[in-house]
Write a structure and sequence with these properties.
With 194 residues, the chain is mainly alpha-helical. The protein has two domains: 144 residues; 44 residues, 2-Layer Sandwich (Herpes Virus-1). The chain is built from five helices and two strands; from the N terminus they run H-H-H-H-E-E-H. It has a two-stranded antiparallel ribbon. A hairpin with a 6-residue loop joins strand 1 and strand 2. Helix 1 packs antiparallel against helix 2. It is rod-shaped. The model has no long low-confidence stretch (mean pLDDT 80). Belongs to the NSE2 family. Its main location: nucleus. This is E3 SUMO-protein ligase NSE2. Pathway: Protein modification; protein sumoylation.
Amino acid sequence: MSLSAVHGTLSSLKACQADIGTGMDIVTDVAMDLAEAQDKDVNPGIKEMEAMILECAKLDREINYFVDVVQQVTAEVTTEQPEAMFSLSAKVKEQFTERIGRLSDAELQSHQKVVAFKDSISNSLNQANQVSADNMEELDEDITVTQSQVNFTCPLTQVEMVNPMKNKKCNHHYDEAAILSLIKTRHGQKKKCR
């Protein structure tokens, strides 16, 4: 009896593994973008990406074990009688379930793509924190420069202000005597209605 259909299906399954690897790379790239764009708090999206990468690693591991089990069982069956082919599916299920039952999720942390994901995220977070610290230093320098350039000249009289007042609407500063005299002259210029 031929096992070519089984081998063809295993080849398709191995091709899916390449797609899973590509998906894991995309998840890592998205998580790095989130890490670079985040504030000081850990972005919940990064935690979701980490859960997704662990799920992909688990799927990758299960595919590897399934392919191994199928290859072992088919190798055993080819030397036996043709009647043994009927129990092929049951043997594969039994051995696969037994093998998966012995695994722990802690082993997923050592998966190549999971390790690369964590390294990439920590590097991105360190770079983002470094950039934000540099930006804060630049901001402090900008603030000190602007604070040293405060203008104490009244725009109305062009004389240094003795008693500065602030306009509530536009936030301009005027000398109290100058602005009060301007207000009085404007009130005096109003014409009365007949």
